[in-house]
Amino acid sequence: MTRYVIIGAGAVGASLAAQFELSGIEYALVGRGAQISHIREHGLNYQRPSGTRQVRLNAFDLTDPPELATDDVLLLTVKSQDAADALAFWSWRSVDDASLTAAKSLPIVTFQNGLATEAAALRTFANVYGASILTPARFTETGKVVVGGEPEVGVVTVGRFPFGRDETANRIAADLNRAGYLAEPSADIRRWKSAKLLHNVRNVLELFDGPADLRAEIGDALVEEARRILQTADYKLASPSERTVDISNWRTAQGSGIHPGQQSTWQSFTRGASSEVDFLNGEIVLLGRLHGLATPYNEAVQTLTGKLAQQGSFSKPLALDAILSLVDKSEEKRQNGLAAVR
């Protein structure tokens, strides 16, 4: 029987564990720090539109993780910026006996936003599966996770990386459906991951304050800049019309505890955790530099939030005008450079 070893006890990982527990699917949740300590002692305070319950979970601290078996599937649910450390920890762990390692014998499913984790996992893991997940979830209080999706918890697309669909992907999707998600396998997961990134480049604006029209203007600029760069880098974005599962009735429930403007980037800064912006907007900046194209809007928000992360606290939003100021400076520098070449 398949057991899912969930690596990371944040909003995505803890809610997966809760759904597996409530659905009778074998799993182990592995985390670190105050969150996993609280869950191990008290259970998870799990809030859904239907109500809140205290769910006892099969939880392990990273300092004493479960032994791995040949039927295990690893679900990597830490944030993108924490994926490298997690991959280094799990890749060479023994499976059943010392002759097998996780990297060579177990599949790993990467739930991170952005495009970097799958390639990083493929350096060591022979069987990598990417997952693109849509779920309105919040983790800002120790021991508590709020998920506002209804009637299902979220929407998941999963597929072998870099491409292909096999029985493992089919089985994972089937188990996720059983656990209360709308899940489907895909033969080209890169297209779904890149389409999700196009949505995620706006997340950073939740850290900024200013007029609504200016927010919309900058958001559109971030998205169009990202779209141009992704297309140049030969990423073909998946379209919602390609889904094989019907998500037309899925929504974020009103009064569920999920509020607009509080997605994963905002949550990380609110908790004082590390920033994922380098793997969202920073991914666009990276691709732009690799292809010789300017990305002034994504570079500006990456710079400003990078400085904010260095402060170690998030007490008040940044000004939207600061983004335009950096964009203007970037354009002035570019024009000066062109004039010097002439």
Keywords:
globular, alpha/beta, 2 domains, 342 residues, 12 helices
CATH class call of the largest domain: Alpha Beta
Strand order of the largest sheet: 5-2-1-6-9-10-14-15
Number of continuous helical runs: 12
Class inferred from helices and paired strands:
alpha/beta
Regions with pLDDT < 50 over 5+ consecutive residues? none
> Can you tell me the CATH topology of the largest domain?
Rossmann fold
Helix content: 40-55%
The global form is: globular
- Kindly provide the radius of gyration, computed on alpha-carbon positions and rounded to a whole number of angstroms: 20 Å
The string of secondary-structure elements, in order, is EHEHEEEEHEEHEHEEEEEHEHEHEHHHEH
> Can you give the mean pLDDT?
94
Q: Could you give a short account of the major beta sheet?
A: 8 strands, mixed
Which band does the percent of strand residues land in? 15-25%
What is the annotated CATH architecture of the largest domain?
3-Layer(aba) Sandwich
Number of domains: 2
Gap between N and C termini:
68 Å
The overall strand count is 18
In CATH terms, the superfamily of the largest domain is NAD(P)-binding Rossmann-like Domain
